[in-house]
């Protein structure tokens, strides 16, 4: 199992500080939730971890080995909040297949992963359709499936439940729990804590580009509420949709 460590990560644009001295660790077999109100720096943090944005200072390590942005692009998977940003295939099936082919896998392994992914995400009805014509929820589910099919050890998901109806959200949450059992290291950005907080292990709460809380998800509730994230007044174990 692989541990990702973010150490004093900062990102600036000119004189503007976008992220400032953020530190946390996320381990294999765990799900870490990054939460905060709009504009707190959640999505840009994921893009920086992935390597799409180059940090101004600090470091990102995998199993104590510091990774350059180029190395992170190869070793870390990211599903964008806007699924159209990563859609390249003319059909859902070809879109998933495209990512697998870039891994230089044997045809037999590509076919196996493709079949398994389409089944796990109940994508058969839309497998031969162009992602452009799908509903927002269907397109989001297909994009998440394409990322997960690549089987990276560290998976970043930006608002994975956005635009999903209840059955699709349950499919995604169940898949996340399955990946957690397989030892994957999963980091999720979401403002919908009431739907999945109980399946997460750690929580990082951001405000104005700074971390105001890092620790267990159950203990994060008062910090989430204090920083603009709705959490209903129910027992912690009920904060899940599946």
Question: What's the helix and strand layout?
Answer:
Elements: E1 4-13, E2 16-26, E3 30-35, H1 42-50, E4 57-62, E5 65-66, H2 69-75, E6 76-79, H3 92-101, H4 107-120, H5 136-149, E7 154-158, H6 166-181, E8 185-189, H7 193-196, E9 202-207, E10 210-216, H8 221-226
Parallel strand pairs: 3-8, 3-9, 6-7, 7-8
Antiparallel strand pairs: 1-2, 1-4, 4-5, 9-10
Helix pairs in contact: 3-4, 3-5, 4-5
Task: Write up this protein.
The chain has 242 residues and is α/β, with parallel strands linked by helices. Helices cover 33% and strands 26% of the residues. It is built from eight helices and ten strands. It has helices spanning 42-50, 69-75, 92-101, 107-120, 136-149, 166-181, 193-196, 221-226, and strands at 4-13, 16-26, 30-35, 57-62, 65-66, 76-79, 154-158, 185-189, 202-207, 210-216. A six-stranded mixed β-sheet has the order 6-7-8-3-9-10, sandwiched between helices. Strands 2-1-4-5 form a four-stranded antiparallel β-sheet, with helices on one face. The mean pLDDT is 93.
Helix/strand order: EEEHEEHEHHHEHEHEEH
What general form does the structure show?
globular
Which oligomeric form is depicted? single chain
User: What is the CA-CA span between the terminal residues?
Assistant: 25 Å
Name of the CATH architecture of the domain at 4-85 and 157-238 = 3-Layer(aba) Sandwich
Rg, Å, rounded: 17 Å
Tally of DSSP helical segments: 8
Q: On the 0-100 scale, what is the average pLDDT? A: 93
Secondary structural class: alpha/beta
Strand content: 25-35%
Strand order of the largest sheet: 6-7-8-3-9-10
Q: Identify the CATH class of the domain at 4-85 and 157-238.
A: Alpha Beta
């Amino acid at each position: 199992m692989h541990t990702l460590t973010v150490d004093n990560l900062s990102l600036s644009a000119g004189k503007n500080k976008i992220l400032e001295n953020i530190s946390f660790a996320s381990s294999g077999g765990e799900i870490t939730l990054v939460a905060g109100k709009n504009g707190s720096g959640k999505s840009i943090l994921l893009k920086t971890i992935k390597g799409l944005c180059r940090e101004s200072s600090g470091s990102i390590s995998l199993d104590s080995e510091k990774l350059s942005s180029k190395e992170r692009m190869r070793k870390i998977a990211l599903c964008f909040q806007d699924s159209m940003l990563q859609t390249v295939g003319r059909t859902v099936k070809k879109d998933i297949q495209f990512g697998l082919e870039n891994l230089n896998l044997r045809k037999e392994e590509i076919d196996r992963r493709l079949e398994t992914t389409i089944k796990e995400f109940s994508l058969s009805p839309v497998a031969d359709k162009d992602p452009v014509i799908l509903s927002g929820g269907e397109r989001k589910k297909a994009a998440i499936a394409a990322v997960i099919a690549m089987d990276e050890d560290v998976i970043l998901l930006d608002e994975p439940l956005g635009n999903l109806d209840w059955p699709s959200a349950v499919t995604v949450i169940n898949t996340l729990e399955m990946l957690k059992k397989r030892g994957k290291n999963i980091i999720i950005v979401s403002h919908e804590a009431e739907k999945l907080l109980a399946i997460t292990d750690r929580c990082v709460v951001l405000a104005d580009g700074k971390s105001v809380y890092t620790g267990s998800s159950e203990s994060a509730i008062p910090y989430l509420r204090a920083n603009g994230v709705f959490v209903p007044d129910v027992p912690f174990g009920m904060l899940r949709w599946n």
